[in-house]
Write a structure and sequence with these properties.
2 copies of one chain form a homodimer.
Chain A: E1 11-16, E2 26-29, E3 33-41, E4 48-56, E5 63-66, E6 68-71, E7 74-80, E8 85-95, H1 97-110, H2 116-132, H3 135-149, H4 155-162, H5 165-172, E9 181-182, E10 187-192, E11 199-203, H6 219-231, E12 236-239, H7 287-299, E13 303-308, E14 311-312, H8 317-321, E15 337-339, E16 342-344, E17 348-349, H9 357-374, E18 378-382, H10 389-402, E19 407-411, H11 416-424, E20 429-431, H12 440-452, E21 461-462, H13 473-477, H14 479-493, E22 496-500, H15 539-551, E23 562-564, E24 571-578, E25 583-590, E26 597-602, H16 605-608, E27 616-620, E28 626-629, E29 633-638, E30 645-651
Parallel strand pairs in A: 2-10, 11-12, 11-22, 12-13, 13-18, 18-19, 19-20, 20-21
Antiparallel strand pairs in A: 1-3, 3-7, 4-5, 4-8, 6-7, 8-9, 8-10, 14-17, 15-16, 23-24, 24-25, 25-30, 26-29, 27-28, 27-30
Amino acid sequence: MKELEGRQRAVIEGVKPEIDGGRFPAKRAIGETVVVEADIFTDGHDELSAVLRYRREEDEAWTEVPMEFLVNDRWRGAFPVTELGFYRYGLLAWVNAFKTWRRDLAKKTEAGQDVAVDLLVGARLISEAAARATGGQAETLKGWAKALGVTSDPQAARVRLALSAEVAAMVDSHPDRRFATAYGKELTVVVDPVRARFSAWYEMFPRSCAPKAGQHGTFKDVEARLSYVASMGFDVLYLPPIHPIGMTYRKGKNNAPSATPADPGSSWGIGSQEGGHKAIHSQLGTLEDFRRLLAKAKEQGLDVALDVAYQCSPDHPYVKEHREWFRIRPDGTVQYAENPPKKYQDIYPLEFENEQWRDLWEELKSVVLYWVEQGVRIFRVDNPHTKPFAFWEWMIGEVRRDHPDVIFLAEAFTRPKVMYRLAKLGFTQSYTYFAWRYSKEDFRQYFTELTQTDVREYFRANLWPNTPDILTETLQHGGRPVFMQRLVLAATLGANYGIYGPAFELCEGRPREAGSEEYLDSEKYEIRQWDLDRPDSLKEFIGRVNRIRRENPALQSDWSLRFHPTDNDQLLCYSKRADDPANVILVIVNLSPFHTHSGWVDLDLDALGLVADQPFQVHDLLTNAHYMWQGSHNYIQLNPHAAPAHIFRVRRRTRTEKDFDYYL
Amino acid sequence: MKELEGRQRAVIEGVKPEIDGGRFPAKRAIGETVVVEADIFTDGHDELSAVLRYRREEDEAWTEVPMEFLVNDRWRGAFPVTELGFYRYGLLAWVNAFKTWRRDLAKKTEAGQDVAVDLLVGARLISEAAARATGGQAETLKGWAKALGVTSDPQAARVRLALSAEVAAMVDSHPDRRFATAYGKELTVVVDPVRARFSAWYEMFPRSCAPKAGQHGTFKDVEARLSYVASMGFDVLYLPPIHPIGMTYRKGKNNAPSATPADPGSSWGIGSQEGGHKAIHSQLGTLEDFRRLLAKAKEQGLDVALDVAYQCSPDHPYVKEHREWFRIRPDGTVQYAENPPKKYQDIYPLEFENEQWRDLWEELKSVVLYWVEQGVRIFRVDNPHTKPFAFWEWMIGEVRRDHPDVIFLAEAFTRPKVMYRLAKLGFTQSYTYFAWRYSKEDFRQYFTELTQTDVREYFRANLWPNTPDILTETLQHGGRPVFMQRLVLAATLGANYGIYGPAFELCEGRPREAGSEEYLDSEKYEIRQWDLDRPDSLKEFIGRVNRIRRENPALQSDWSLRFHPTDNDQLLCYSKRADDPANVILVIVNLSPFHTHSGWVDLDLDALGLVADQPFQVHDLLTNAHYMWQGSHNYIQLNPHAAPAHIFRVRRRTRTEKDFDYYL
């Protein structure tokens, strides 16, 4: 009991956000607000005060904001985050004797009771506040305390003074916090660039960008392609690995076990005599070319994202220089990757349990820092779930300590808890199961989990309908309508989304074989030539959708996502809204790429900020059509061959005759 | 990075039970099992092993039990708690190289691959295990390692050895835990007596136990009443405060502001010249009488519970001896209790913010310890939510450190989070909102929250249909049927329940005034004479219900509670089951005390351990009627004037002709 202060009577618990008991930071983007809620209460019936305090990690001084009581012992406070990096926050609550006294005085006065002694109690409380104040305020408080105690003055006048807002405000600004309870932990929020929350990615193989068939594309060719990518409205151009590619066990076309001399190999078979993860594949160009590409891309509003794939071809310099970083088999060979009985002899995984793991970690960090120095700020990390969690937490922490604007996207297609853990420990964005969500109920459940539970505090979804590894069954059979549909879903369900092009906009749907999600003639193993000007290309449709995203803040974050019931299982309906400026988007998607579907949507008007008795306008930003609706029940019909979706901007207030000056 | 061990690749998170990040212990009763679950995973595809370890708090050595993989990275382990007091538990997980190797060897062998090198890898792993073993096991392991490496022996035979269960078991018993991950916290479970989980309370005013009207009852009179209480099947006899009662501002009948000399005063107006919380009201008897009552009660299987009401009448010795423990007003008077504009001048609350709070805490603890020394083991604590949380946590912790069999019931009728906090910090049982739950949906929601969420880990509900302070509206109007109905609900929804009698069994339903929940002529302010032999007394019905509780383990805990749909809002249906011995109870209650209701129940057969295609028997333990049912859909009709409920024992297997020896 010696160290206990038994008079700390306030309790603080149930704090949100608090990830795993404060083990991990919550995530926000710059300019956002951190809303903190907690259960705060005390014994008995005394009034409480509570503050939320916050500071940038590198600062010492706290800034305090008052918390407000909501309901059922729940309190809320909020602070803005305006700088990249870490912020700390904590909570403080205390029993407020003056507030309690003031409340009770009002009740007693109202009941006509004599409050002579109560006024003396108040005088004491105010003079205690005076002792905590200085200068003029101290004098003012002393004066009020004295006035309250002048028993010869009329009680009514003294009660008026005691209950005045002026007295309350000044006493409140000198609170008695001797027995304040501080929440036991300091919590952390990490602040990322806005692009962490809102981004449109385009993945493209540089080597397939050559103007002529049979040629190996270069960074210069990619430069020429920038305006094409930018015209579709993307803001991140993600390049698969640009490093030298190994020869040993190099894969041929369609993942053939052996390559011909003409085969370029897989971009993920990293490392050759030319170099490893810090080198550039010579057929793409020089470091200088690469840096120029970064600059040119920037001019078009595009950030170039690189691939971080920590694995080696047998020809990688590490294999010779750092055999200790690999697993050596009893026969003296290096252990290749395997998923028994499958063997991947073109890939040597790094052995993270080796004795020299510290050197390995440092080297891997230096790879990222090397590209950061070249100007890269976004990394898509290949298979992070096959390297130790502790490594990622350390590496990302180290990089972001000096470069808090760096974004890491986790390509972890694995079990949900593993994906969430990677997000918690530092990945800025994460791939999701979006590609394999098909039914209305699947979408509702999964995206409710991602956007309406604690998951959203640390897991930022990035939605990809396809990748070089993922050609889902639905894309194989649905033709152009399904590509339009999946694009709208990805781009409106997710503030972050991406496509792998030009396969996507050209509706490439041929699998290597039936039942496979691999592309036929995949770019992973060969150079492809794409006809970007094909009349059926979706480039303009994609451009329109990305323009809608840019013009509507509602689509630039995910937390407001709400699903609305429909009476047809093929019609998915959801909305997003931004508060400032007022912006509401309502999306209805026909989930069938084959048939026209119609039905009734049952809108949650509250979620849309609408009222039942007033008509409102919905404006289809895809087709430019306008409809007048009223109430929650509205009819929809969508022909997937024309337009598989509505993206409605909802305009809450429409003019009626009552708006005319001369109405009545 | 210096202090980091980067090779600890296993992750442990999402541990349950873990109350508020380990801040509070989970609760169990003696003989129960602590089932611990956690998300445990690692990077990549390696196999894991995990153990749960536990120890009594006072022991140093851990006992380990293996954890088993469930699904979706969830693991489970369990340990029994066989002693009162605190247990600690923790988790440990590690990447198991041998298990991984063995799994992969099996896959490769199955695919017909050459595994020559793999066998050498295995030999290395087994000889590493040998180095961790001693004596004969070390020798055996060495032998196996050597055998695996004899390349001249046939591969098939060596594979058979490598994959043998014998090798797996012995290697597993010498695991490589160098890089094991320990969960960051040691967690705690507190083990209480079985009565903490399963108890039937009877509250009774000793002063109303005199054989003749107008007399003040004594402990001896209570002794004479013991067999009556025991015959109804109760096991806790709870007495309102037995201490001297103050004279100043003593309340008269029906809470009249002033008392006549004949009025006995409120039992909660504690303290007079006779003494305070450690004294006995002289009209009840002596300390010796009280101790004899405890002994006599014990003979009847009854524990006597005392009331702990930390408040004072103006005549309490503390007021003179420890004025510093009270709030002194500027006019020199002691602050009485108030809830403005209401004043309770007969009660002085203790001022916990006083400078001498340490002395006050010690004194209050000594009150409980005093009665513990007299043999009391159960305390019902009056209004704990009006005293500081920190005090309770300290006081209960202190008392239970030496007396872990002591039970504290929190009488906190307040907001839910306050009630839950009191439970977390140490109260063994808690009053609930049961008295104010009326509709089917209310019951389902509230009792699902209490029994199927984390709340159950620390909050043990005790259900009271009435108390001296609570005569709910439904009891005022429903007559005998509603008392029967509420008794069945309390006694079967809650393994812990209680009634305030004889008011309850005599169906006392007269309120002091319309709209009030106070009893007319409340025993709080006067001595009552009850005719226990009235023919309409529920004593036999109560006895039957308590006998059913004692004979059916299903009703002795709450965690198995499940609600089953019915097609009539007045029919509430739920079940409980105990695994050992197999015991399933199905309760259906007509929530209307006025009308016969019928309808269909839609049983969750899984929850009952039944199968759809086999008939089963339900045996009404209240009426002794038997019914044969099959499938989930069954018809119910209940006349509240005859029996407001069924309490069915479900017998899963019924004999059919197939059970005869000569059937086919």
